[in-house]
Structure prediction request, 1049 residues.
Amino acid sequence: MKKLLLSSVIVLIGFTFIGRLSYLQLFRFSPDQILDDPAIKKVYDYPERGYIYDRDGKLLVGNQPAYDVMVIPREVKPLDTLEFCGLLGIEKEEFLSKMEKARVYSPRLPSVLVPQLSKEDYAKLQEKMRHYNGFYIQKRSLRYYNTKSAANVLGYISEVNEWDLKNNPYYVAGELKGRTGIEQQYEEILRGQKGVKHIQKDRFNRDIGPYKDGKLDTLPQQGKEIHITLDKTLQEYGEKLMHGKRGGIVAIEPKSGEILAMISGPTYDPALLVGRERSKNYSKLHYDTISKPTWDRSILAQPSPGSPFKTLNALVALQEGVINEDTNFRCYHGFYVGNTLRGCHCGGGIRDLNSGIYQSCNAYFAGVFRKIFDKYNTTDQGMNVWEKHMKSFGLGGYLGTDLPTGAPGRIPDVAYYDKWYGDGRWAASTIISNSIGQGEIAATPLQLANMTAAIANRGYFYTPHIIKSIGNNGKIDPKYTEPNYTTIDRKHFDPVIEGMANVYEYGTARWVKIPGIDIAGKTGTVENYIRIDGERMQLTDHSVFVAFAPVENPQIALAVYIENGYYGSRYAGHIASLLIEKYIKGEITRTDLEKRMLEKTLEHEYAKPYSGEPFKINEYVW
Amino acid sequence: MSGRGPFGRLDWISVILYALLVFIGWLNIYSTSVGDADTSIFDFSTLYGKQLFFMGVAFLGIIFVLFVESTFFERFSSIFYVVSIILLLGLFVFGKTIAGATSWYDLGFFNLQPSELAKVTTSLALAKFLSDIQTDIRTGKHQIYALIIILLPAILILPQPDPGSSLIYFSLFFVLFREGFPIYYLGILIFAVVLFATTLMFGTVWVSIGLIILTLLVYTFKKASVKIPLLPVLGVIVVSILFSLSVNFVFENVFEQRHRDRFALWLSLEKDEDKLDEIRKTIGYNTYQSEKAIESGGFTGKGFLEGTRTKGDFVPEQHTDYIFSSVGEEWGFLGTATVILLFSLFFLRLIYIAERQKSDFSRMYGYGVISILVFHYFINIGMVIGLLPTIGVPLPFFSYGGSGLIFFTMLLFIFLKLDSNRLKDGI
Prediction:
């Protein structure tokens, strides 16, 4: 026993050790550990972000160098703080608090002291920098905007947040990522692939050379440039016209579904969200909850479409065979919703399809709407048919564009009214407002423009999209090159388009005719209400206009929606005609009209509900 | 074989195992301390260069030991012992403090650590005392003398402070056990340690229940012919429970927080992730980093000089106490298992040698040598792989350090020298 004691102890220890080591090295070991190895720092080599061009190859977004002043707190030697602050252009208190923040973050790792110096400041600082130990300047790449327009379309880039980090392993804290618009939608194409260098670190986080002599390192892959479908000139011109007005404009090329312009008013200069003032500017824009400049009205606003929607009701009625071109209704200056008379501005008299459209007769379309429902035995059946036709125009649902945001609009259905009124407790007459595009219908300007494009194409549309090509003639998603057919036969479009063309000849927009261009359009005047502090008040009508031109072989289809612009042709019609002229002719002949539109603002209308005083709406004054 | 000079009867198996361990140790020291690859291995400003120098000195030490008359060590062992005690005492006046411990004499070119020397001399003195014809370890008086020889240096080393080295002297109890000191003392010690640890982990109530169940099981399954008197067993249970009850009191009131943290880490007492994280960053930092380095080696390791954590100095004191973690990271399980195997074979070989001695002195000294080496090995690797709490002792032949390497070598070769002369003993 006593001779074996020590030997047994040794054997026992040996087995215990081997057991523990098997646990550590065989059981707990996982092969990917090398990636989480704290001794290996990954240093990233960022490729330049891809440029963005418009449809004609004009540069919209490029890059510019920016310079961050970095600090490694523990390497800082005593310095003349006042002089240094003077160079950096910051206050001493700010400097001290930022230094403290950097020290708390890490004494050994670099922190940003002053972000994004201008080129001028950089030039001034560069030569003096070496006198200050522990500080250095790091070059970064920032977005440069070759336009003051299209801020919401282009979107902006910002630092990745925790959600991004959790959901996408590509990103590392501090990196930039497209946050909205095209920058977000085409993030992976624009950013390229960063290169990685593995650096061996010691436990004080100091570099001690490349890991495995750089065998695992990768080179960065350049971001690709993209061309978008916007027309820079049209976009910029449209934004100028929107000066002082709220609303949205979308212009589409009907034969391709390419979005030519997407304007939201008010807008802002995209350069505001770049550089040192970024966060200040962002807060200002973001917290402007009344005019909401960052809220893209062209794809997010969902007003009732108003009279332009009458054209669709006419098409559905023709398709269902409940009317023909000659079917007529007499207008008694209005129509009934239940027991309430709703007015009509058409002037009264006998209305057929053509004059119903160009005079925008409410009574005529109330009659048409009723006829659609009368064809079927039950209201539900009629409603389902009507809904199916309407949705085939891309209404009442997301269009599937390549824009990262959007709104579905609304085409009400049986379930919707059953819930509202109760099962079977409603009929065509209850929901008759839909006949004139009021009621429960809602559509974004983009949907209206797309609907117009479908009419312009006589029965089909291409899903609206913003991408034209990726890289050098790179292919885009095939879903944007396949037509979507509506449920309306081609032959039914001609009489409706004739009516729309007559809007310019004899109708509600006859004073905005452009010499030499045949336009088909439809005005809209949309009643609207607002709730401020619980009080519901009616505001001046929204001005809406949809149009396409030329009538034969259309090149542009657009929808203009101006908040509180009063009747359709007053603002929306004028702006639409100017945009069409600009796009097709390249120049404006009616300079008086242009001047008026550029100068007029609707700020007085927008101020009314917040003035706290009683106000009049729909005032016929300029 | 006889009469071929000082190397003639040397046990070459032990010598080869020794040389292998020193060589592997040096490779790992090289790996932990190599900077730019183009410096020479003989660069004495580097740790591996210095270690190479110490290896040279150790070799001179071996030559010296082998050429000295083998009776020299036995004859002067008492004087050596007294000298080393004086040196330990002298530290209180002339000691040089390194890393908070006053354990060194500054000799200019070399820092001498007397506690390392004392391991050799104490082993010699104990062997000398026990092998004396008049000593009978079964008598209480002689047991106390033996204890004094062992504990005197341990007590002098403790306040340096160097609890690790101090603890090492307790390994010499294995010499006593070999020579007839009752083994049940060891049994009681182990039982107490187990009770202590299990009480901290599960609490007195469960420990008591466990003890009672264990007793019942023993009574149930014992052969009918075996009679175990009930009363002493009950006594043991009662004393154990009382001991268990005192554990928490001692733990909370006698221990300091840093000790409690070490135990908390060792026994996985702390379940709160945040607090565990805190412990990992402070008191458990070394152990945590060491375990992580070993884990990251996997089966085959990252390869010589490829250990990222080793290169990055993630494990503090890696070239000294934590040298084994470098083996784990760069050579993987294959490397660590090989080293464990080499050590085990080495120790078993030494026991074999000790048992073949005709001279009691040689055998007892041999046991002293083995006990000290095994204790270092057990505590060091146990700590590095996270089985034992943090106690700073070097890994023999592996860890960087002149005093350690030289005195471990002397310790070993005095024994091998005695062994080579075993046939002349008793003549």
In short: The longest helix of chain B spans residues 323-355. The radius of gyration of chain B is 23 Å. The longest strand of chain B covers residues 101-106. The mean pLDDT of chain B is 86.
